[in-house]
Amino acid sequence: MPTVRYLIRNEYGLADPELHRAADKDDPEAILEGVAMAGLVGVLRQLGDLAEFAAEIFRDLHEEIMGTAARSHGLTLRVQQLEAEFPLVENLVIRVLLTMMALIGAVLFKWIKT
């Protein structure tokens, strides 16, 4: 069952009931005009509510984006640091491998001679 995060209220319920109650009961045109005005006021209030809801959504989205940008910046700095350190590690690994190959070659050379 979905949960309701935001409820849009009825436009006629948002308007002041006096907008159409103040009209003369014998004049149907005045009653209709009052109801139409109440509907218009209600629609405008709905738009205001929608604007507040949109502002809340975009504020939350902005906070998420700023957090993601901060994490991305930290990750970029870490990658740059690793890129700077990688040649040092690569040279060390190459030296160790060359040393090991030289030692293995010397051992094999002695073993073959005997």
Automatic annotation (TrEMBL):
Single GO molecular function: Arp2/3 complex binding
Residue spans making up a coiled coil are: none
A GO term (biological process) for this protein? Answer: positive regulation of Arp2/3 complex-mediated actin nucleation
InterPro entries membership: SCAR/WAVE_fam
For this protein, the parts annotated as crossing the membrane are 92-112
Say if the entry is tagged with keyword Transmembrane. yes
Swiss-Prot/TrEMBL keywords: Membrane, Transmembrane, Transmembrane helix
Family matches, as Gene3D superfamilies:
1.20.5.340
One GO cellular component assignment for this chain's record is: cytoskeleton
Q: Which family does it belong to?
A: Belongs to the SCAR/WAVE family.
From the Swiss-Prot or TrEMBL record, give the protein name.
Uncharacterized protein
Which organism does this record belong to?
Musa troglodytarum
